[in-house]
# Entry
Amino acid sequence: MIAKIRQLQNELIKADADAILISSAVSHRYLAKFDNPDGYLVITTKNAYALEDFRYIEVAKKQLSEAYTVVELSRSRLYDHVNEIVDKEEIKTLLIEDLCMPLAQYKGLKENVKATLDLAGAMVNSLREVKDETEIAKVKEAQRITDIAFDHVLKMITPDMTEKDVATELEYIMRKNGADDKSFDTIAVSGVNSSLPHGVPGDIKLNKGFLTMDFGALVDGYHADMTRTICIGKADAEMKKLYNTVLSAQLAALDVLKAGMLCSDADKVARDIIDKEYKGCFGHSLGHSVGLEIHEGPNLSSLSNRILLPGNIVTVEPGIYVEGKYGCRIEDLVVIQENSILNLTKSPKELIEIY
# Structure
């Protein structure tokens, strides 16, 4: 916790700012290791304050007192609390989290706080992009649970199940094996519905053909994310060709990923393979970063000029979607290292047929 505060304080000094107001729940959790969606942090170049309301104040005093001066927050007096810190710390410039702050909140601060407001932009988000060993361990555990769920569902899935049945079973097994929650709304779509990258599971029996399952476990705030596509019934030659094209694209991308690589170059490796046979059928980026949010930066996008760094955790998930027919996606979760990757996903990737 203290190390992350120090990192942010260094960024404030570089930006020639006196302090930053942390208002987003995810930044609050990251910087305080304390989950209060309604709390605020004020971090100056030298000190740190946690504004926590009555519901959380007792726990906050126990958990945060080493790094923060804990203030009991009266929501009707938010501006007063901030101004007290502004006066005490002689704050002239106060950064705000403009990327996630509602306009009404910004206007209220601008009208009532006795400091010049400026925009923090991606200052906190950029710190979150590189994960430390503790964060990597939490994502690794979340992915371990996710793999368990896939192994389980393979052993019990039948053509008589519905898409909702599959999604529910995956979520149940993740919770049963230690997940705090699901990372996001589970996708389990079959047959013609598999052509929808973010299709919603229906109360319909599994259709013959591809069944795409995109799901993940949540552990202590950190997300996992994986996708596997199997076949209900026997896959024909064209389905096998499509599946193997996706798999080849994914394996090729996994083989070249490492620190120092341009995100768009990673996307291109997979996209070139798919476009040779299925031009225009790979409509999303190769992947995205994962952490306290399911979608973080940097993205493995054809439009991204970002460079991958050691400690980035990214998905690698090429897909092919043939409108009105079917689709397939294969997704692993990997940690970027200096000269390679650490693949956290252990589930098999060969085409599995279930009769």
Q: What stands out?
A: The longest helix spans residues 133-156. The mean pLDDT is 97. The chain has two domains: 2-128, 133-354. The first strand starts at residue 19 and ends at 22.
